[in-house]
Amino acid sequence: MTRLSEKDIIGIFSSALGIADLDDVAEIPLGKKALAFKCDMLVGMTDVPEQMSPRQAARKSVVACASDLAAKGAKPLAAMVSLGLPRSITRGYVEELARGFQIASQEFGVKIVGGDTNEASDLVIDCSMIGLADRIPPRSGAGPGDIVVMSGLFGYPASGLAILMGSARATGQFRKQAVDSVLEPRPRQDFAVLAPLFSSSIDSSDGLATSLYEIAAQSRVDIHVDYEKVKAAGVDEFAQANGLDLQKLVFYGGEEYEIVATIPKKSLPKARALAKKAGIVLHEVGAVKKGTGRVFAGKSLLENRGYQHLA
Amino acid sequence: MTRLSEKDIIGIFSSALGIADLDDVAEIPLGKKALAFKCDMLVGMTDVPEQMSPRQAARKSVVACASDLAAKGAKPLAAMVSLGLPRSITRGYVEELARGFQIASQEFGVKIVGGDTNEASDLVIDCSMIGLADRIPPRSGAGPGDIVVMSGLFGYPASGLAILMGSARATGQFRKQAVDSVLEPRPRQDFAVLAPLFSSSIDSSDGLATSLYEIAAQSRVDIHVDYEKVKAAGVDEFAQANGLDLQKLVFYGGEEYEIVATIPKKSLPKARALAKKAGIVLHEVGAVKKGTGRVFAGKSLLENRGYQHLA
């Protein structure tokens, strides 16, 4: 029997539960508002490199939720944290985890209102978060002529992981930025101010290619992005110096926690003005075209794959 | 260094996060309504006896949330499920888990709107659930003169676990009820109809003694319950036949998923009428008295302890 991939598993659950429109963030209508609901599990053995402190792990477990809510323009209301902890856990370790949650709570403006504590063989942190929005942009709303925008550039986390794992070397500012992007990821909450203008949006934590494919497939359009405009500074040189595949670092890394969205052309001046006022950089990196759910970087058709658990 | 207990860990987190009033269900004010938010993690090695099927484990992971929301009179809005699955997982196992979530979704009237899939060394299921209520009864509202009520009687899950673990024997109807209470627990959603009358309430899943102590301590009262009125039928004989401690089975077992609440005396006729109309049994088992946070069964002061992970 072939091993099941994360995609297979999601497929089995989606079909059993009748969830047709799979989104990282579920939308629950609530009067005139929409409630955004999201959960994300961090597991020691797969999500916590040995250089990551318990404080950083706890903080990171909240990042994915904060990032997803930001991509949907939802203001965090509250979070809950379920913990699985090994029996051998020390007081110092628990205090550091608690400190990480405290930091995340302040940083992301979300009160952690409760949780659950359990014994487990490995560290497991599951964060669930709810937030409120006037409207939650879908993945399916991108139309031909829309502009593809991003909250930041791509390639640091995959580079940082390669450095931390010892399979690549880097120095100076690039090393610091790459490693920090793994240990202290920064979700783009400021960018949520643009969400009312998004025709579609997604948080890029499963990888840029996958994220673009999600929008392209669900919106039944093609997406074209400019390779030069999406890659982060220094990734090119880092890839070359270490004999790594640049495309892999930029499009298939994941855990960037950037917001990827589309904006109708007519809303672009407003988006630029809002971004300027908020002091954020609006990266305009491509265009939506009539199509069949494909994604191109320059002239190359990208492969539709990203990071998958159990793959 | 002494090992940390679940209580120690909760203490560290509560103090770091400034959660003064720890409740299993967090209340988030939302206009004129209150949103109830709850999460519960099930871990294979501690929460899944080998006789429990993956279908039952998935269903059980939703039970704790449904029970807690019912104790607070909150109608489920939506649930999310984060999964940790071993790499060796089979399609059949995943399909059975999915079937369990499907059953729970229908049974508890809650749509499972999304989730997260991860690789882990052991089965981990974290369910988070939100629900809406007009008002969420606190743990701190019991006043002298109130009546202590329960949705059901106590002792089956601890008996069932002793049977499943092979440390006790039983036959016939008792065996079936005790074992079913472990493998297919039934949270008391029907009882939520009485929640508007509760001065305080709690779900009893951490054990009856602990649950009563929570209300007594937070309400600064003493609670007196009638031992004969709280023990489930047959537990007495089962304890005697197997040389087990009856008090332990009834007061310190846990996972009963019964609702324990207090009702002001003047609301009792209304509660009885509502219960009759809803076809549920209102167990009136004791009284709230002036006091200092103690719990008595008959004339004996109970010990304040329940099931704790990592203990």
Structural write-up:
- Two copies of one chain form a homodimer.
- The first copy, chain A, has 311 residues and is α+β, with helices and mostly antiparallel strands.
- Helix content of chain A is 36%, strand content 25%.
- Chain A folds into two domains: 6-133, 60s Ribosomal Protein L30, Chain: A (2-Layer Sandwich); 147-301, PurM-like C-terminal domain (Phosphoribosyl-aminoimidazole Synthetase, Chain A, domain 2, Alpha-Beta Complex), CATH 3.90.650.10.
- Chain A has eleven helices and twelve strands.
- Chains A and B meet through helix 1, strand 1, strand 2, helix 2 and strand 3 of A and helix 1, strand 1, strand 2, helix 2 and strand 3 of B.
List the SSEs and their pairings.
The structure is a homodimer.
Chain A: H1 6-17, E1 26-30, E2 33-43, H2 44-47, H3 54-71, E3 75-85, H4 91-107, E4 111-119, E5 124-133, E6 147-150, H5 156-164, H6 172-183, E7 200-203, H7 208-219, E8 221-225, H8 227-230, H9 235-242, H10 246-251, E9 259-263, H11 268-278, E10 283-290, E11 295-297, E12 300-301
Parallel strand pairs in A: 3-4, 8-11
Antiparallel strand pairs in A: 1-2, 2-5, 3-5, 6-9, 6-10, 7-9, 8-10, 11-12
Please give a quick description of this structure.
Two copies of one chain form a homodimer. Chain A is 36% helix and 25% strand.
